[in-house]
Structure formats: structure tokens, C-alpha cells
């Protein structure tokens, strides 16, 4: 049940208890660099009007769930406000231009949170040193995403940003391996599982363009349309290939990438092997609907026990939550999007 729901002016200190006026409360946490969201309907009360920037605090069953600020207010003909509020990570959408020195993801997280003026802490630090780089007119989220992606490729550890009520945290996934079983006999009310090779590649080609001269020519077609490009007489390509035997099962699924400047044959071959390892895999999508539990948030992992999945040949044990949508009410439910068989969970999940 709701044990606290207040809306307050950010600086005046005026606060209104709206616990008996709210309905359709939905809380979303998402690892995909999106701010935590709380949406709700609020009955009209002439004593106050919700405003953008107002502070929203929500607790469920004495547990602190959401601390954030109103960003959208919609007033409807049924005398209800429909409100969207975001947690403090929303301020990581601020844009800036920075020159990063050699530093860790922990250092960069600390820097952008200070610049966004939000309370924060590093729960899990990283020692991996990222190269110096320039981030020009990018959001803090984009800066962190680029740094997190590079750290993950180098260390096989995934970091993410999460608002723990009023403090933004840098965490390593999975943050908390819950002793919760979501399955036929526990919490589960529905599921959907999909495996796909739409984005897969089992053949990789790294290409280097060779030109006798740095020259472009233009020609005019019969209908007088002009086109320009490399001169075929002076252009050739060098290749480095890598492929997998599963071509016989999937057919040939090829992707190409341009070689870095001055890359030699050995470096091109190494990059082809690396890219093949990244691309040569099925992707899995597992969506769950279950009874509500406030610990089921993005970044935590749970145990899965679904008999029908096992009978169909898919064995999924422990997997992490990528996105969680909590629907609070008399029937408290969760919709979960899971991360299955990804590199940072290979030892725990399999199909």
C-alpha cells in the first residue's frame, strides 16, 4: 500500500500530502541510459496546483521508491492531472563540451554528477583507465554511455547509473543477485521469449580502400544527373575476413567495417576476429509479467524457473533485469524485460 506520497515546492518548503488523491501510479527503471520515471494521475484539489519542478516523494509499504521532480503536467476534462516526473538522473541529459583526461568511469561519473549538481556516490568503482578524448556538445548520459561501453569491452564488466531514491549511484551489473525465483510456482503470471539472428553476423570483412591517387571524378548520365565518386581505374580494396562454421545453418550473414588508417594486415585480421565474436550470436528477448516486488528493479538479477521454456529447449537460470515497470494499485504487478545470454552474464545464463 502507499505509505507516503507528497508533492512539494522545491524551495519554499510548502508540501502537500496527496496520498488520497493519486491513482494509476507507474514506476519505470531502465538500464538504457533513461531517467527513472514515475507517472500518476492526481485528482484536482483547489488547495494547490502541481507545477513543473515540484518535488515528488513516493513510498510503498514503508519502502522508499521514488524521489524526483515533475517535468510534465497535463490537465484533463475529468478534473485529473496526468503527471510525469523523473528522478535525479534526468539532469544527466544536460549537454556540455568537455575534454576528458586519461581517467576511469568512476572519475567521469563523479565529474558529470557534480556538474549536473546532483547528489551521487560510486558504489562500484573501476580501475580501468579510459583514453583521453574530447566530448563536444554531448549529454552527460552520452558521455557516460561511451565510457561505460569502452570499459565493458575491456573488462567484461557492465556499469550503469541508478537513482537510489535521492542519491544517484554508479553500480556494476548485476548489482544485487536476488534470492527471488520468478517462475510457474512463484510470482510469474505471463511470459514471452524470442530468439533472433536479425542482427547477427557470421561473416566479417574488414576493408581498406587503396587509391593510386587521391582523386575524384564526376560524370554526367544520359538524363544529365551528376554523380561523383572514386575513380574505378585508380581504386582497389584489401580485405581481412573472419567467418564461422554456422554459415551452413544460418546462411551467410556478412557485415563489413572500414579499417583504421594505416592498419596492417595482421591488425585487420585481429579486428575481423574481434568483430565476429561480438556479432556471431543469437539475441534473446525474455519479457515477464509477475506479481509486484519492489526489489525487482533494473540492474538486479533473478532466478528463472519456467517449465514450458525448458521443455522447448531453453534453459535460463539467472538473468538480469534491463527494464522494470511497476504498476502500483490494489493489484501490484511488474513487467520485466530481461537480459539473456549477454557477454557480461555468460557464466550465469545459457540457452
UniProtKB/TrEMBL annotation:
Residues 213-222 have a biased composition (Low complexity). InterPro entries: YqbQ/XkdQ. Residues 208-239 are annotated as: Disordered. It comes from the Bacteria. Residues 25-339 form the YqbQ/XkdQ domain. It holds the Pfam family YQBQ. This is YqbQ/XkdQ domain-containing protein.
Amino acid at each position: 500500500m502507499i505509505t507516503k506520497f507528497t508533492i512539494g515546492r522545491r524551495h519554499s518548503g510548502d508540501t502537500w500530502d496527496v496520498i488520497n488523491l493519486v491513482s494509476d501510479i507507474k514506476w519505470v527503471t531502465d538500464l538504457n541510459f533513461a531517467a527513472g520515471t514515475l507517472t500518476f494521475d492526481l485528482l484536482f484539489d483547489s488547495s494547490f496546483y502541481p507545477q513543473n519542478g515540484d518535488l515528488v516523494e513516493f513510498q510503498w509499504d514503508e519502502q522508499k521508491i521514488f524521489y524526483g521532480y515533475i517535468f510534465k503536467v497535463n490537465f484533463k476534462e475529468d478534473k485529473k492531472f496526468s503527471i510525469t516526473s523523473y528522478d535525479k538522473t534526468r539532469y544527466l541529459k544536460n549537454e556540455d563540451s568537455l575534454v576528458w583526461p586519461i581517467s576511469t568511469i568512476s572519475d567521469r561519473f563523479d565529474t558529470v554528477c557534480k556538474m549536473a549538481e546532483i547528489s551521487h556516490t560510486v558504489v562500484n568503482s573501476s580501475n580501468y583507465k579510459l583514453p583521453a578524448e574530447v566530448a563536444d556538445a554531448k549529454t552527460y548520459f552520452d558521455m557516460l554511455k561511451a565510457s561505460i561501453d569502452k570499459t565493458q569491452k575491456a573488462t567484461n564488466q557492465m556499469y550503469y547509473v541508478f537513482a537510489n531514491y535521492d542519491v544517484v549511484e554508479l553500480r556494476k551489473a548485476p548489482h544485487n543477485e536476488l534470492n527471488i525465483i520468478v517462475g510457474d510456482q512463484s510470482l510469474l503470471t505471463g511470459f514471452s521469449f524470442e530468439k533472433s539472428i536479425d542482427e547477427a553476423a557470421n561473416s566479417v570483412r574488414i576493408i581498406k580502400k587503396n587509391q593510386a591517387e587521391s582523386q575524384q571524378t564526376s560524370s554526367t548520365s544520359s538524363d544529365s544527373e551528376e554523380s561523383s565518386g572514386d575513380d574505378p581505374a585508380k581504386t582497389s580494396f584489401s580485405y581481412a575476413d573472419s567467418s564461422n562454421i554456422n554459415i551452413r545453418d544460418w546462411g551467410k550473414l556478412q557485415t563489413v567495417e572500414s579499417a583504421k588508417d594505416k592498419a596492417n594486415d595482421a591488425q585487420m585480421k585481429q579486428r575481423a576476429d574481434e568483430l565476429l565474436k561480438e556479432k556471431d550470436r543469437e539475441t534473446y528477448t525474455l519479457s515477464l509479467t509477475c506479481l509486484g516486488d519492489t526489489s525487482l528493479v533494473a540492474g538486479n538479477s533473478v532466478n528463472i524457473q519456467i517449465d514450458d521454456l525448458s521443455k522447448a529447449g531453453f534453459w535460463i537460470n539467472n538473468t538480469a533485469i534491463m527494464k522494470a515497470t511497476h504498476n502500483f494499485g490494489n493489484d501490484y504487478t511488474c513487467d520485466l524485460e530481461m537480459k539473456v545470454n549477454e557477454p557480461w552474464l555468460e557464466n550465469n545464463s545459457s540457452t
